[in-house]
Design a protein that fits this description.
The chain is an all-alpha fold and 330 residues long. The chain has a single domain, classed as ABC transporter involved in vitamin B12 uptake, BtuC. 76% of the residues lie in helices and 0% in strands. It has 14 helices and no strands. Helix 4 crosses helix 5, helix 4 packs parallel to helix 6 and helix 12 crosses helix 14. The protein is globular and about 70 Å long. The two termini are 21 Å apart. It is found in: Cell membrane.
């Protein structure tokens, strides 16, 4: 349709990128502390405080939001292509819950483990939980596509219950809440750099986008074209698991992001992954930045964690997507 071609062209993407830059500027400007832009060039102690606030807190937080939003949105797109279901993403497949369990395990057994060690452990647990999810899908008759996210939500609920039990047993419920609720209020320079790993993995997915587009058409189709479907699936799930682990370790879980953004893009651009990834990444950053700004403004100077804002808006959009997809499926 003409309107889809108009929106989905380079002009539409340029408009989204312009909106993304405006939100980045707004994110840097909003905060509990006062930072008038004129103070940056006023000289003296006031300028020094303003520059310190900008470089230590405001810019790192904005970069963290941008990197997390882009990476998680792309991770959701990869998972949907591999599972061949539009209602799957890390928080509806048990991936994030498994990563959280991994962080709890390493905290209990080796509390002095560096952040990179926690990330690797969380990645391993996330991959194991995702593979368990795929194994369950093979054993359950999938009479409707809505069964797939239901299985993932049940699996995630079971894993979360186990995690909560051990967190309660060892007095780590407060830490568990921090891992499961996305919150960027504590992000400072030196505490968000792991998210660049997630951004790099998202770029790697773009390089292999054509392969994952073919993989999304099924094992037999991919094998007929000479692709190793099992290896592609494993690498794709490893990318998704690593991105989920990096975000959880840095800022906690962010629900529905990898579900809403790829679905919105697919309604306009279809299933061509190479064409969709720039849109998914840009809109993921827009969505996360917008939700974070809303959370900071509603009860300013206090703030609502971004995980709560995304959860509320994401659940509403998820219900709308369920209704839309059901109407399309008849």
């Amino acid at each position: 349709m003409n309107w889809r071609r108009t929106i989905g062209g380079w002009g539409g993407l340029a408009a989204v990128l312009a909106l993304l830059l405006l939100l980045c500027a707004a994110s840097v400007s909003v905060g509990a502390g006062q930072m008038p832009w004129s103070a940056l060039w006023s000289g003296g102690e006031e300028a020094e405080r303003a520059w310190r606030l900008l470089m230590v807190s405001r810019i790192p937080r904005t970069l963290a939001l941008l990197l997390a939003g882009m990476a998680l949105a792309v991770a959701g797109l990869i998972m949907q292509m591999l599972v061949r279901n539009r209602f799957v993403e890390p928080t509806t497949a048990g991936t994030v819950e498994s990563a959280t369990l991994g962080i709890l395990v390493v905290t209990l057994l080796a509390p002095d483990t560096p952040v990179i060690g926690k990330m690797l452990t969380a990645t391993g647990f996330a991959l194991a939980g995702t593979l368990l999810f795929l194994a369950l899908l093979r054993r359950v008759p999938l009479r409707t596509p809505f069964i797939v996210p239901l299985i993932g939500l049940i699996l995630g609920g079971v894993i979360h219950a186990v995690t909560t039990f051990f967190a309660y047993r060892f007095d780590l419920l407060q830490s568990l809440h921090a891992w499961t609720t996305g919150d960027f209020s504590g992000v400072l320079r030196g505490r968000y750099e792991l998210l660049w790993i997630g951004f790099g993995l998202a770029c790697a997915a773009y390089v292999a986008a054509d392969r994952y587009t073919v993989a999304g058409m099924g094992r037999e189709f991919a094998s007929n074209l000479g692709l190793n479907h099992a290896r592609l699936t494993l690498v794709g799930l490893l990318i998704v698991s690593a991105i989920s682990a990096v975000v959880v370790v840095t800022a906690g879980g962010i629900p529905f992001l990898g579900l809403i953004v790829p679905n919105a893009v697919s309604l306009v651009l279809g299933d061509n992954m190479r064409r969709a990834i720039p849109w998914v990444a840009a809109l993921g950053g827009v969505f996360v930045l917008a939700c974070d700004i809303i959370g900071r403004l509603v009860i300013h100077p206090y703030e609502i964690p971004i995980g709560t804002v995304v959860g509320v808006l994401g659940s509403i959009l998820f219900l709308w997507l369920l209704r839309t997809r059901r109407n399309r499926l008849g």
